[in-house]
């Protein structure tokens, strides 16, 4: 069996190697993001919001390819509408990223603190999970939502969107990687499976 990656036919073993490399890089990145300060995570989110605005043309050009492919596949008008990254959708992405940045940092929060008979107090402290893998439908805004939530919570995430949004998701993932690197966080903290 084989898969196609960027127009190149790859044997299944190469696909396994690709996934292994992505997972290994995400694991390394998760160790850094788990310890990142609130300021650094918020800086990455703000850079992501800014890049979504400045790279609007690149994102929408990639989206135009996905929309044309979806129409040629005969997908429903409602599906194509959900796939479209309009100016309004991009503005909503930017707003959503900034809203996540404004949230309290979940890492280190303690809840359900209660005294024990011995006199010590026991509670639950929130911490990052590590690496999250997420498979979702062809809604490009989910790429940004998942990336922003992973960054804020100090996790790394591997994203696998629907094949209908692959070009848009690649453009969005590039924006996120650039924002992470600009904020001195590992770009591999958010990765997209680059093939359908």
Search tags:
7 strands; globular; 16% strand; three-stranded parallel beta sheet; alpha/beta
Summarize the structure.
By secondary structure, the protein is α/β, with parallel strands linked by helices. It has helices at residues 12-33, 38-54, 56-72, 77-83, 87-102, 140-152, 166-182, and strands spanning 2-5, 8-11, 110-115, 121-125, 131-135, 156-160, 190-192. Helix 2 (38-54) packs antiparallel against helix 5 and helix 5 (87-102) packs parallel to helix 6.
3D structure, described in words:
β3 and β4 form a beta hairpin. The longest helix has 22 residues, at 12-33. The protein is built from seven helices and seven strands, in the order ββαααααβββαβαβ. It has helices at 12-33, 38-54, 56-72, 77-83, 87-102, 140-152, 166-182, and strands at residues 2-5, 8-11, 110-115, 121-125, 131-135, 156-160, 190-192. The protein is globular, with a radius of gyration of 19 Å. It is 56% helix and 16% strand. α5 (87-102) runs parallel beside α6. With 196 residues, it is an alpha/beta fold. The strands form three sheets. The protein has a three-stranded parallel sheet, with helices on both faces.
């Amino acid at each position: 069996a084989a898969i196609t990656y960027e127009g190149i036919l790859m044997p299944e073993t190469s696909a396994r190697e690709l996934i292994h490399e992505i997972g290994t890089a995400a694991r390394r990145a998760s160790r850094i993001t788990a310890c990142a300060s609130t300021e650094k995570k918020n800086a990455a989110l703000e850079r992501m919001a800014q890049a979504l605005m400045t790279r609007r043309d690149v994102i929408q050009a990639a989206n135009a390819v996905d929309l044309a492919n979806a129409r040629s596949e005969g997908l429903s008008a409602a599906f194509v509408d959900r796939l479209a990254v309009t100016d309004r959708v991009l503005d909503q992405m930017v707003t959503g990223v900034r809203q996540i940045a404004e949230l309290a940092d979940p890492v280190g929060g303690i809840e359900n603190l209660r005294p024990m008979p011995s006199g010590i107090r026991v509670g639950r402290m929130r911490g990052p999970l590590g690496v999250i893998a997420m498979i979702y439908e062809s809604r490009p805004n989910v790429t940004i939502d998942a990336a922003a939530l992973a960054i804020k919570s100090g996790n790394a995430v591997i994203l696998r969107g629907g094949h209908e949004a692959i070009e848009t998701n690649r453009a969005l993932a590039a924006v996120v990687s650039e924002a992470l690197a600009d904020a001195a966080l590992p770009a591999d903290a958010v990765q997209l499976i680059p093939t359908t």
